Amino acid sequence: MNDNTANSNNIHYVDIHVGRKLKEKRLERGITQDDLAGSVNLTFQQVQKYEKGINRISSSKLYDFAKFLDIDVSYFFQGLDDYKIHNQEQLYASDKVANDFGATVKNREIESLVQAFKCVSNAEVRKNIISLVKTLTT
């Protein structure tokens, strides 16, 4: 990826991606944020920040998460090359970033959408769904 790589909340796209992959695997395994946090000696609030990409996950914590979830660390980076973000500066995660996405969309709606999206096997159809959703938000 050669494009500049941050979103409008100053969160680096890699941190967002890794956080989403962490949440995806946690939900897939039926593990609560509290249980995941306890497995690596954190608070559930810290796990929330990791899952949103607000805080960057250290390599040692990423390794601990992978061990607890019984997955290879590379899982967190799968699909990373699919991101393409235009016309944005490269910035980094910060505790001070406000992320209100969860405040406007119910978690169950997000989970339902993600589960349905994961069932779409055709890559072109997934790409079209993403385009449609982006179109609806403008």
UniProtKB/TrEMBL annotation:
CDD domains for this protein: HTH_XRE (cd00093)
Gene3D superfamilies from the UniProt entry: lambda repressor-like DNA-binding domains (1.10.260.40)
SUPFAM superfamilies assigned to the protein according to its UniProt record, in alphabetical order: lambda repressor-like DNA-binding domains
Domain of life: Bacteria
Residues covered by the HTH cro/C1-type domain: 22-76
A Pfam family recorded for this sequence: HTH_3
Keywords from the named record: DNA-binding
Protein name: Helix-turn-helix domain transcriptional regulator
Record organism: Candidatus Bandiella euplotis
